[in-house]
Design a protein that fits this description.
binds manganese (II) ion; alpha/beta; binds guanosine-5'-monophosphate
């Protein structure tokens, strides 16, 4: 990797400052001071305006007021840390409060300055913050170059708060599974969604949880949220809940008093083939106990895994979900057709139901039905939605 010119310690380059204050006079006065030192200054009169600018341009330092209508400087700092762990932020306030100062430190503010700020103090701090920010970028690049997978302490703090916000904003979306035989509803799969912008899709939330060793917390949250709307549907409707392999070893999964366990006979626990099941003995034991509690087991993403058919065989699932890569363009791919046909024949002999997921076209749908898939799931029938969404079978 080449270190870019921007971060190679070129101290001659002008420093780009984003100045955030709702007070016009303060913006004017401070930008004058900074421009005198040949810094480039962009101004914003609110936290939201600042975030928009940060999304569009690169800055070396953010200098922000704390007390502003709408988003406060502390909130702005938190938002920035969710997206960028290295951009230095200096906070300014007219009324220093211990509480705010502590929050500023906690969220990684570079400095907390009290107004009125003497010109020399301001410029010194901005200059120093910009240099340290550049150093942080170079350090990260060097670590990447050396292939270090250990996150820095600072990285971890940032990721931690990002993950906490993702966890707090977690909601479940539901996608229907439909019987191909009579087009009736079989159940819904619960899919986690977070509104944390730095972790925009479920895979990113899972990655963060894994890096922070917080899989257990995430799994528990998913399982507590998933049953939500089940009281509104008949008991014949099933709920599919995704488990991570490590969830299988969490004792709370076997607690019969949880909301999920109370409706165990309606629940299908999906275990993905993507993960290697390390402690196979522990897993087998847990699965046996879960069955006794009334849960059914599905193998998820079959065909995508590294585990081959080993995990599949030993878990003896009631339901098998084909990975959507097998479903994609199946109507024009003979090898996929052969594979799906043999999997369904094998599964039917073993008394298992086969799900085709990720169906996006009418041709894929008709083809998987022809190949023996019992249950259908995918955007063609319904996209995941907040309450239990309706589905249409799709065009004839
Ligand atoms: O790993 P798992 O199979 O649980 O993941 C399902 C994911 O696939 C969900 O995030 C869901 O939103 C998405 N999904 C559901 N139906 C479709 C589809 O028809 N096409 C695509 N591309 N994705 C889908
Ligand atoms: Mn799934």
């Amino acid at each position: 990797m080449q270190l870019s010119a921007e971060t190679s310690g070129d101290t001659e380059r002008e420093i780009r400052v984003l100045l955030v204050d709702d007070d016009d006079a303060v913006r004017l006065a401070l930008s004058r001071v900074l421009r005198r030192l040949k810094m480039s200054v962009t101004t914003a009169s609110s936290g939201n305006a600042a975030l928009e600018l940060i999304g569009a341009e690169r800055f070396d330092v953010v200098l922000s007021d704390v007390m502003m209508p709408g988003m406060s400087g502390i909130e702005l700092l938190r938002e920035i840390r969710g997206r960028d762990l290295e951009l230095p932020v200096i906070l300014m306030t007219g009324t220093p409060l211990l509480q705010t100062a502590m929050e500023a430190v906690e969220h990684g503010a570079y400095k907390y300055l009290t107004k009125p700020i003497p010109a020399t103090v301001l410029t010194e701090n901005v200059q120093r913050a910009a240099q340290l920010g550049q150093l942080a970028v170079v350090k990260r690049q060097a670590m990447e170059l050396l292939g270090s997978t250990l996150a820095q302490a600072g990285d971890r703090a940032g990721l931690e708060s990002t993950f906490e916000r993702a966890l707090a904003s977690l909601r479940m979306a539901y996608q229907p599974l439909v019987r191909s035989a009579d087009r009736s509803l079989f159940g819904y799969e619960a899919l986690m969604r977070s509104s944390e912008p730095a972790l925009p899709h479920p895979g990113a939330v899972l990655d963060a949880a894994e890096r922070l060793d917080r899989m257990q917390v995430l799994g528990r949250r998913v399982r507590s949220l998933a049953p939500g709307p089940m009281s509104t549907v008949p008991e014949t409707v099933s709920l599919f809940v995704n488990l991570h392999a490590s969830d299988l070893l969490d004792p709370t999964l076997l607690d019969a008093t949880t909301p999920l366990a109370r409706i165990a006979s309606q629940v299908v626990l999906e275990i993905t083939e993507r993960a290697t099941l390390d402690d196979m003995n522990g897993v087998r034991k847990a699965v046996a106990q879960l069955r006794e509690m009334g849960f059914r087991i599905a193998i998820d993403d079959l065909g995508a895994g590294y585990a081959g058919l080993t995990s599949f065989a030993s878990l003896e699932p009631e339901i098998v979900k084909l990975d959507m890569s097998l479903v994609r363009d199946v109507d024009s791919t003979v090898t996929k057709q052969k594979l799906i046909r043999s999997v369904s024949t094998l599964c039917h002999d073993l008394g298992m139901l086969v799900v085709a997921e990720g169906i996006e076209t009418r041709e894929e749908r008709d083809c998987v039905i022809e190949l023996g898939c019992d249950l259908l799931q995918g955007y063609l029938l319904a996209r995941p939605g907040w309450a239990f969404p309706d589905y249409v079978f799709g065009p004839e």
